[in-house]
Amino acid sequence: MYEYYQISAQDLGKDAKVPVLKLGDSGEVFYELALEMVNTIKEHNAKGEKTVFICPVGPVGQYPIFVRLVNRDRVSLKNCWFINMDEYLTDEGEWIDKESPLSFRGFMERTVYSKVDPELLMPEEQRVFPDPHDTEKVQRVIEQLGGVDIAFGGIGINGHLAFNEPQDELTAEEFAALNTRVLTISRETRTTNAIGDLNGAIDAMPRKCITIGMAQILGARKIRLGVFRDWHRSVVRQAAYGQVSAHFPATLIQNHPDAMIITNANAAQQPF
């Protein structure tokens, strides 16, 4: 059991159930994600087509590169829609304050939208976040736009994509059909995020969130997931080789026709 943890860095990707692209340092992973974003937009702009992305706040290293390339190459985002994966909620079920350092809405404003040349930036209504008061909004937008071109993201320590936490009581098929919803964040995810975002202050971490569903992620024409942390060494192996199940949500991308995990050399190392 769990033989995939013993797969060496050299052999990672061999006979995997989903393609694994192994790169050097984290900067290469972020550049790969940013370049795919920019190249897709350029291609669609040239054909007069819209571009629709599902965007994470984790990983985030791609965004400064994306902004620099957009501004340098004068890439118009006017025909782009960015649908963010999720947002933290208060205990009362409202978006946390946009000014909070934990707010994904605030992050996108500070790091992306305020940095793009205003002449190139998409209108505010094309910057979409899941709404706890209208959980069907994201799916309506996706259907109106004709689908999502690429869902970008990372993988959580328990395999979650966006905040789609494991639900062992569901079949893989049932989990894959889940839509946008409000949920309680697992303690393991809150702990991991507290270490990365609040220097371990787990009690200060939000307990609730709004997340797009696996149905929205798996419905995208392409899926690109970036991994780069020490603990991603085990995560990337389980996602690429483990049994497809609701126990480790990232395994569901094994059934997707155009999914890829992009890893740096650190995350490619054997866990133990």
From TrEMBL:
* This protein's UniProt keywords: Isomerase
Question: Which Gene3D superfamilies does this chain map to?
Answer: 3.40.50.1360
Q: Does the keyword Isomerase apply?
A: yes
Keyword Isomerase found? yes
GO molecular-function terms, A-Z: isomerase activity
Q: List the PROSITE patterns hit by this protein, alphabetically.
A: GLC_GALNAC_ISOMERASE
Q: What is this protein called?
A: Glucosamine-6-phosphate isomerase
Q: Which organism is it from?
A: Allofournierella massiliensis
Lineage of the species this protein comes from:
Bacteria, Bacillati, Bacillota, Clostridia, Eubacteriales
